[in-house]
Design brief:
This protein is 30% helix and 26% strand. The protein has four helices and five strands; from the N terminus they run E-E-H-E-E-H-H-H-E. Strands 1-5-2-4-3 form a five-stranded mixed beta sheet. Strand 3 and strand 4 form a beta hairpin. 21% of the residues are buried.
Length: 125
């Protein structure tokens, strides 16, 4: 679909992966900024981080930058219910803001459902 400014539109997110058996779960999300919109993606990541601070079932959460325009989020949950609660909450609301996503992202964010196999809980001192 093309909007009034002749820019391609997308849905905001594309989700892949299965829920699988209950147990520790995570999302790995690839996010590509439109050229010149990188700072707005960084702001979006700050907004998401603010949401997850108050989510009891969201564990380790990282926003990373692969390159000038490619970002990612890794976030872990104790189980499917915790991950579902995150999706229903503020972090999910940000990705459901399709107008914002279309303005700042080059393509839909690729949300990958993954299982956590092993985890180190703290940094070594």
């Amino acid at each position: 679909m093309i909007d009034a400014h002749d820019e391609p539109r997308h849905r905001g997110v594309r989700v892949t992966g299965e829920d699988g058996c209950d147990g520790p779960k995570a999302f790995y999300i690839l996010i590509e900024a439109r050229p010149g919109r990188e700072d707005e993606v960084v702001e979006m990541l700050r907004d998401i981080r603010a949401c997850v601070e108050d989510e009891p079932a969201t564990g380790p959460w990282f926003a990373v930058r692969h390159s000038q325009s490619l970002f990612a989020i890794f976030e872990a949950f104790p189980d499917i219910a915790g991950r579902d609660a995150h999706v229903a909450g503020g972090g999910g609301d940000i990705f459901r803001d399709v107008e914002r996503m279309n303005r700042i992202l080059d393509r839909p964010a690729h949300v990958q459902r993954v299982d956590v196999l092993f985890a180190k809980r703290v940094f070594a001192g």
